[in-house]
């Protein structure tokens, strides 16, 4: 008789999830885990992930049906009375303003009861905002809970208006979690400054599939007519895309034939998109910059293979998966030295690492790649070696599996 598979519950992510989470969840399911995603943000309920179960949660803040809530509460009272009592106790402990926001006790019961009846072995929150929302359930599940830090949640968000509630709960979230996962050593240091004990943190860096992200077939020759650049990012100020555009303007002024494609530029809020478009027009770069919008991972891989360099001008990062994707494709990277970037990218080896907010340094690095095609080739080959030796998806999945099994045993 085979042992029951470990049940992983991922709470508060989009459905379908971001690409890097799709790879993770499908990979873990293929390794034998039972994987459930509980989501309120469902854009395509018919989207499927191999081996992954979707558990829909109430969406929005519509007034809950008292009859429906009472039925769910009665069901939990019959099957797990201690869970219901624990949930009511935790709801009473929440901030009064938070309770009013979700229409009081009945509204919060409507929010939490669909999850309170689940019996996972491990619960994982990828985003701290979701962990803050479902914090009252930590003691209800009576199983290990893991919180992740992917990037700006603890370095940037504390300085962003409107994030006060989540930030105020971070000590409680990290204190209650069985483990805190971070994607870079720099984030691990940030957690230490917040008082999170080192023994609780788990460093698991991102990984990519080297078969999906691979160099172009045949020898990679230099571009005959222009320097082909690609940047892949949400249009948020923290991604520093304006600095990239200023660098492209400088390249044009230096008579470097250049074309930059921005992928993901249709994501984010309206004001960010319009600001980016205005900057392109203001700098006179209509003939040198293309806004491609969101692309699938296969399309991203194709665009990377067709480029001469990846540009990552961010002001803050965890460990950008796109850097690993570019290296796996044999493409040099020019990135700013923030977060965990230098933990994957060595200046002068797989590409160039320059200071943040320095468009001139970006321009110099990119111009050198244009002037020295042999350097592009060497850096691309070095990036492929680094990606396939240190940043594979298989390695990442094995480390997640080990972490889940460790916390489940303890």
Question: Can you walk me through this structure?
Answer:
This protein has 410 residues and is α/β, with parallel strands linked by helices. It has two domains: 7-57 and 119-207 and 393-409, 3-Layer(aba) Sandwich (Rossmann fold); 227-390, 3-Layer(aba) Sandwich (Rossmann fold), CATH 3.40.50. It is 46% helix and 15% strand. The protein contains 18 helices and 13 strands. The strands form two sheets. It has a seven-stranded parallel sheet with strand order 3-2-1-4-5-6-7, with helices on both faces. Strands 10-9-8-11-12-13 form a six-stranded parallel sheet, with helices on both faces. Helix 12 (270-282) links the parallel strand 9 and strand 10 (289-293). Helix 2 packs across helix 3 (81-93) and helix 3 packs across helix 5. The longest helix is centred in the C-terminal third of the chain and has 18 residues, at 373-390. The mean pLDDT is 92.
